[in-house]
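Hi everyone, sorry if this is the wrong subforum. Our group has a chain we'd like a structural model of before ordering constructs, and none of us has done structure prediction before. Sequence below.
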Amino acid sequence: MKLDIIAGARPNFMKIAPIIEALKPVQDKIQYRLIHTGQHYDKKMSGSFFEELGIPDPDVNLEVGSGTQAEQTARIMERYEALLLKDPANYCLVVGDVTSTMACAIAAKKLGIGVIHVEGGIRSNDITMPEEINRMVTDAITDIFYTTSEVANENLRQLGHAEEKIRYVGNTMIDTLLKNEARFEKPEIYNTLDLKEKGYFVMTLHRPANVDEEQKLKALIDEIVKGAKGMPIVFPVHPRTAKMLEGIGIHAENLHLIEPLGYLSFNYLVKHAFAVITDSGGITEETTVMKVPCMTLRDNTERPETITMGTNELVGTNPDKVAPYMEKLHAGKWKIGAIPPLWDGHTATRIVEDLLTL
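Answer:
Right subforum, don't worry. Here is the predicted structure as tokens:
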């Protein structure tokens, strides 16, 4: 079998790394081609992850670069289609919910190539999120779903997908986390700020609902700074957010804006943090497994198991909602949480075992 593995943006890389590792012993049966679309193209958002996670250099880089979502989608489809016409695959394996996921799935399906979606079936039910549109479109044309939870399975059943298309295997991002946990690297900022174990917050913000309006972003950060009670807040700033912060002029002694970190350094900070404040979906999964309290600044989540079972709480995007959760943290009343089923570090092995049956 010839299998294309698609990666385009930072969230994808953690999900493909264990799959590629699990494919190594069966390369005589499954020949894979790693395709980097170039959706994330700078080193901090892309290159360093390949190095740190031991991902081989891509066989193909579509080099789509920056642009609007429509421009990126069009370039990815055009360039991936050209590749498939010249050298087709049997299956196209996409992961997650970024633009590359949807674009490559469409291009493959229109050429009669099977589509496999790793992390299929998750839903926020928020159509204003670009990622939700990507999920809906991709799942509508997927042939085989590898899912992370029973919630995702039920979402797919409700959409009318046949049971034999749904394969409940677990979470490849947790495979990567557990494999690399012992390799986490203390970043330079840890010593520079004289951080103490469980004595600081980690914050990430990048979603439009939080960062696209200057006054709302300022109000959110002001509430977080106040609620931290002087505890350091380490804020690796996403390029999208950095542009907005320039015009706001937020300054606080305990707020430390830093460049985006690599995988090993960032997760070192997360593992040893007092708590994490984020609007990322993937980070809520990692904090759940590492038993770190997590506050999600969103009005919905496509990963409800991190709330019902894990260490995550859905705070919302209203700045006024932040203070009670900060008080709960400082009072030591945060839930302990549990790890969802099959988030055990062996998901990629289960995926490859199933691929061998195709």
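For your construct planning: The longest strand covers residues 2-7. The chain is about 45% helix and 15% strand.
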